[in-house]
Amino acid sequence: MSGETQPPQALLPDQRLLNQVAVVAGATRGAGRGIARMLGEAGATVYCTGRSVRGRPATAGRPETIEETAEMVTAAGGHGIAVSTDHTVEAEVERLFARVRAAQGRLDVLVNDIWGGDALTEWGAPFWKLSTAQGFELLERAVHTHIITSRHGVPLMVERNAGLIVEVTDGDTLGYRGNLFYDLAKNAVIRLAYAMAADLHAHRVTAVALTPGFMRSEAVLDHFGVTEANWRDAIEEDRYFAESETPCYVGRAVAALAADPDVGARSGGLFSSWGLAKEYGYTDVDGRRPDWGSFFPRKVREIIERDTPPSEEDMDLFVVRTRLYQVEGDPAAADESARLRAYLERYR
Fold first, then answer.
1. For residue 347, how many other CB atoms are within 10 A of its CB?
2. Is there a contact between 176 and 221 (Cβ–Cβ < 8 Å)?
3. Are 347 and 310 in contact, with CB atoms under 8 Å apart?
4. What is the pTM of this model?
5. Residue-wise DSSP of 63-97
6. What is the Cα–Cα distance from 219 to 239, expressed in whole angstroms?
7. By C-alpha distance, which of 55, 60, 52, 1 is closest to 27?
């Protein structure tokens, strides 16, 4: 394939992944785009896959394309290659990895970030009122694609007894996520990382699950009517937005994992952008180090300690319930769970 060999270039300050090859499945926008960019920043050749290409966007209302992402990878210092791929179609995924094999002969990093479930998630409805057709389509997009992609990408890693698979999820606990199909999808990819790690142990290939925090994706910025330049203007509307992070934050987490010679010790685990930032010492691209894992529980404690009836406009009940889902299965959090339940009993 012409243009798929990275041209010679001056070594940039942080080119830890120079000569490494990555595939980011679902690189059109959001976390996938941020991950692809930061792998590029570290010098990698990055295949950016998805369905949205110039002149033919696949997601209504969203203008981002995989070609744009590939250009961002190259601008960051790597080599971006856009490959139109529908990861629900196994033949297209097979062609993708045949192309990687022919052009590169190796695969070092595989990121499964395909989601596509926003329009299919029916928030606020119990499971017996959900559309099964929509739910099954969500699972096909967000889980089946990950399995298909790993099935055809991992042999390139097994042949070399080396590689990293990253399953991108939402949340660093196994608690309920507020919607049955959403919960199944996000917990399923955590389990995929764990199961693949078991099968891959003898081959020295690492599989992990990774979550961002409150991420300022393109869609989130549009929702609040702000840009990356003035995102703080939205904090007045949503106080939790104050601890938000760019998609590049989780991208730097992936780059740090890929460059870690001891990453195998993490195989099968579930990690967060903010937790790995503390361990590896990276920051977000704006120089901040958001810590959603500390910020959110602190805000919940403030609600509990304030102990006033929530108004219809605020999100206190939702936030407290979300925190209860996160900790109720943790024996070490029994006291916190009891306080959260007591609050919900008083005010729900």
1. 14
2. no
3. yes
4. 0.94
5. ---HHHHHHHHHHHTSEEEEEE--TTSHHHHHHHH
6. 18
7. 52
Query: Alpha carbon 5 to chain centroid distance?
Result: 27
DSSP 58: S
112: part of which helix (H) or strand (E)? strand 109-112
Q: What is the pLDDT along the chain (348 residues), one digit of tens a residue?
A: 546 866 544 444 578 999 999 999 999 999 999 999 999 999 999 999 998 788 888 788 898 899 999 999 999 999 999 999 999 999 999 999 999 999 999 999 999 999 999 999 999 999 999 999 999 999 999 999 999 999 999 999 999 999 999 999 999 999 999 999 999 999 999 999 999 999 999 999 999 999 999 999 999 999 999 999 999 999 999 999 999 999 999 999 999 999 999 999 999 999 999 999 999 999 999 999 999 999 999 999 999 999 999 887 789 999 999 999 999 999 999 999 999 999 999 998
The tokens 């024996």 sit on which residue?
331
CA atoms within 13 A on the CB side of 19: 1
The token pair that represents 89 in the structure block: 């179609």
Kind of pairing between the strands at 21-25 and 205-211: unpaired
| The pair of three-digit structure tokens given for residue 339, joined into one six-digit string | 């306080």
Residue located via tokens 């990408």: 153
Q: Are 83 and 48 in contact (CB under 8 A)?
A: yes
Give the residue numbers marked as catalytic. Answer: 182
| 245 Rama class: left (phi>0) / alpha (psi -120 to 50) / beta | beta
Neighbour-count burial of 238, counting CB atoms closer than 10 A to its CB (0-12 exposed, 13-18 middle, 19+ buried): middle
Distance CA 167, CA 188 (A): 10
Rounded CA-CA distance 124/137 in Å is: 19
Q: Which residues contact 44 (CB under 8 A, 6 or more apart)?
A: 17, 18, 20, 21, 22, 78, 79, 108, 109, 255, 258
Give yes or no for a contact between 97 and 156, defined as CB atoms under 8 angstroms apart. yes
Radius of gyration of the chain (CA): 20
